[in-house]
Amino acid sequence: MVSRFAGFSSEALKRIYDSHPEQRAEVGEILARRETHFCMDSALSYLRSLAKKERTAGYKDFTDHCTHGRSWGQLHRQVPHYLEEVQLECERRRWPLLSALIVSVDTGTCGEGFFESLVRRGVVSEDQHPLAVEKAERAKCFEWAKSADE
User: Fold this and answer.
1) Distance between CA atoms of residues 135 and 111, nearest Å
2) Which residues on neighbouring strands pair with residue 102, listed in sequence order?
């Protein structure tokens, strides 16, 4: 099936995506085919579901859920940027930092970028222990998810 949006430029599609929530699924799919489009709605939905189950997930699983099937090889270097976007969106919404739920499958901890981003933006201080910050934020996510509206 050919989408009515297929002839639109990527910039026009991004504006439609941002301003028309009812079109996001269709427009997001087109953008994903054209470029490594990060879908914040998909990311937040996935992260909220993880928080409700009190679980974490690996980086690849995260990208599988928020980039509409782009290959890991195309995306692995962009994941820190995506996770920082999630941090900023969570802060904007006054939610706990759901990006704390994305961890290395080898270590079970967040990458260095999680803590570095928080320090750079003044959310935490450099003298705090990264693992303690991560665990505290993850606990906030789990607690928040128990009472968050659908």
Assistant:
1) 13
2) 57
